[in-house]
Amino acid sequence: MENIEIKLIETKDILSVFPLLKELNSTTPSTILKERLLEMTTQNYKCVGMYFNNELIGISGLWFLTRHYCGRTIEPDHVIINLKYINKGLGKKLFEWIYAYAQSIGYEATELNTYIENVKSHKFYENEGFKKLGFHYLKKF
Fold first, then answer.
1. How many domains, the chain?
2. Is residue 16 included in any domain, yes or no?
């Protein structure tokens, strides 16, 4: 696809990602989801957007961390491509941008989590060279 632009979304425009974010988080109330997203922008978080003819069609949050086992790492989070644009190679394009960006700012690895039931994403990430290292656990209070 031509006319694809990938760039960081400015903090002041972060709520522009909300419709796509809601697709992935349909059970979280909108008010809570917006509050969390705004709070995330005050932490080690940025969001990258993929645009087709100036329409936001894909996003990935980016967390910036240093881990003892892999060094400076960038963690893509809530990776979403609008359903109309799936299976067109855009996920690969988005991740190529993320890898290049991470390396350009001195990061040496990328790691991520994906939902167990999202089997299609598992195949995509494995094709991208990601290796399963363990399980991600969550306990809510």
1. 1
2. yes
Residue 80 placed within a domain: yes
CA dist., res. 61 & res. 63, Å (int) = 7
Q: What is the CA radius of gyration of the chain?
A: 15
pTM: 0.93
Beta bridge partners of 59: 49, 80
pLDDT in tens, 51-105: 999 999 999 999 999 999 999 999 999 999 999 999 999 999 999 999 999 999 9
In this structure, is residue 96 part of a structural domain? yes
Sign of torsion over alpha carbons 64, 138, 19, 4: positive
The number of residues in the chain equals: 141
User: Residue 94's pLDDT is what?
Assistant: 98
With contact defined as beta carbons under 8 Å apart, do 103 and 70 qualify? no
